[in-house]
Design a protein that fits this description.
alpha/beta; 22% strand; binds zinc ion
C-alpha cells in the first residue's frame, strides 16, 4: 500500500529527538517541509494544487469549478499536518496520508469520479503557535476575523502575518474564501481516535456523530502577598486555597454531571516558594454531553472558589450531517457512531453549513496529543479501505 511509503517519508519531519514527540507548528520550517511534501505528492498524482486565501492546500482530481457550475460540487477528504507541542505522529497526518492513499487505490481500480475529489491539508489546526485552534478553517469560513488572525503572536512575539510572509504566503488576501468553500460538496475527515471508544467496542473504524459542547473559562483569584513564614494563618488571604477548592469542584461536578473538566494552566504571582500568592489566574476546560451539564460544572467551580468564572470561549454541540453519518456507517459494515470531545476542522466546516463527516481509526493507547498516540499499521490500512469505500460511494 502506498500509505507505508508516504508514512515513512514524513516520519522524521519535525520530530524532537529528546522527547520523540512532534513540533510541527504552523508556518514553521517543519510545516514548510510538510507543505512541500504535500505539493510534491499532489504533483506526482497529477492533481491540481490550489492554495486558498488562508494557506490551506487543496489537491484536486477533476475540475472543481466545472462541477460547481454543474451543481455537483466535489468530495473533499483530508485533515491537517501540524501538531501540538510534542504531539503524536497520527493526529492530523493519518487523515492526510490516508486521503492520498485513497486516490491511489481508486486510480488503481480504474475509478472515474463523477464528482471531482480533493485531498485537503488544513493549515494551523492545533493552534499550537498562535493560540487559536482550527485557524485555517475558521478564517476561510469567516469565524475568525482576518485582522485578528494576522495580529496573533507566538511566544517569540512573531505575528501570524510575519510568519506567513516569511513562508511566502500572500498575507494581504487572508480572509473568508467563498470561492474555495463552494467547491466542497462533502467533506470527510479521517482522524486517529482520541479516546478508548473503539478498543472497548473491538472495532477498527467508527463514524463521528457529534462534537460535544466545550469551552474555556478564566478564574481571577485575588489574595494578599505576604511572608510564608511570619504571617499567622488567620491573617492570610491565600488564593491558593480558592484554587484548590476550584480544582476539586471541577472534578467532582464533572463526575456528577457526566462531563470532563480540567484546570491545566495556572499563573501564580509572585510565584515564590516562600510567598503567599497575591493573585492566581487559572483556566478551566470543561466539556460534556450538553450545554446544561457543562454550565453546571462551571457554576459549581465558581461557587466553590468564590469567584466568577469568565468565559473565554464557547463552542456549542456540533452535529455532523446525520443522514451522511448513517449512510457511511451502513457502507462500513455498520460501523459504530462515536461522539468526540475534541474540536476539528470538520466541526468548523459543519458549523458553516457544509455536509461533513468524520471517520475515527482505533488508537490502542487511547492517548492523544502525546508521543504515546498510536495506531496499528493494519488499522491504518483498514482506515484507508474505509475512506476509499466512502469516497468511491460519494463520487460515484
Ligand atoms: Zn487533529
Amino acid at each position: 500500500m502506498t500509505f507505508d511509503r508516504m508514512w515513512s517519508a514524513i516520519e522524521p519531519i519535525g520530530r524532537e529527538a529528546s522527547t520523540g514527540g512532534y513540533r510541527r507548528y504552523a508556518w514553521s520550517g517543519a510545516d514548510a517541509t510538510l507543505r512541500e511534501w504535500f505539493a510534491a505528492e499532489a504533483a506526482a498524482r497529477g492533481l491540481d494544487l490550489v492554495t486558498d486565501r488562508m494557506g490551506n492546500q487543496w489537491a484536486w482530481w477533476g475540475d472543481p469549478d466545472a462541477a460547481v457550475a454543474a451543481g455537483r460540487p466535489g468530495v473533499v477528504i483530508g485533515s491537517h499536518l501540524d501538531s501540538v507541542p510534542d504531539g503524536g505522529a497520527f493526529d492530523g497526518p493519518l487523515g492526510v496520508v490516508s486521503a492520498l492513499a485513497v486516490v491511489d487505490a481508486l486510480k488503481a481500480r480504474g475509478f472515474e469520479p463523477s464528482r471531482p475529489v480533493a485531498v485537503a491539508n488544513f493549515v494551523d489546526e492545533e493552534g499550537a503557535r498562535f493560540g487559536i485552534a482550527c485557524a485555517g478553517s475558521r478564517v476561510i469560513t469567516g469565524k475568525l476575523d482576518a485582522d485578528r488572525a494576522r495580529a496573533l503572536r507566538d511566544v517569540d512575539g512573531v505575528t501570524m502575518a510575519e510568519a506567513m510572509a516569511a513562508a511566502g504566503h500572500d498575507v494581504e488576501h487572508v480572509g473568508p474564501d467563498h470561492e474555495t468553500l463552494r467547491r466542497v460538496g462533502t467533506f470527510v475527515e479521517l482522524h486517529i481516535e482520541q479516546g478508548r471508544g473503539l478498543i472497548d467496542l473491538g472495532r477498527p473504524v467508527a463514524v463521528g456523530s457529534v462534537i460535544r459542547p466545550h469551552g474555556r473559562w478564566r478564574l481571577d483569584l485575588a489574595g494578599e502577598a505576604n511572608h510564608a513564614g511570619t504571617t499567622l494563618l488567620e491573617d492570610r488571604h491565600d488564593p491558593m486555597l480558592d484554587l484548590a477548592a476550584a480544582v476539586l469542584a471541577a472534578r467532582s461536578a464533572a463526575a456528577a454531571h457526566g462531563c470532563v473538566a480540567t484546570m491545566g494552566k495556572v499563573r501564580v504571582e509572585p510565584n515564590g516558594v516562600n510567598a503567599i500568592p497575591s493573585r492566581i489566574t487559572a483556566w478551566l476546560d470543561a466539556r460534556g454531553p450538553g450545554e446544561r451539564e457543562v454550565r453546571a460544572v462551571v457554576e459549581s467551580v465558581g461557587q466553590q472558589s468564590g469567584c466568577l468564572a469568565l468565559e473565554e470561549s464557547w463552542t456549542p454541540e456540533t452535529v455532523f450531517d446525520p443522514q451522511l453519518a448513517k449512510r457511511l456507517s451502513a457502507l462500513l459494515d455498520d460501523a459504530p457512531m462515536l461522539a468526540t470531545g475534541a474540536g476539528h476542522d470538520a466541526g468548523v466546516l459543519a458549523t458553516a453549513g457544509l455536509s461533513t463527516a468524520m471517520l475515527f481509526v482505533r488508537n490502542p493507547t487511547g492517548i492523544s496529543h502525546s508521543p504515546a498516540e498510536f495506531a496499528e499499521r493494519a488499522d491504518c490500512h483498514r482506515g484507508v479501505e474505509a475512506l476509499t469505500a466512502v469516497t468511491g460511494e460519494l463520487a460515484r
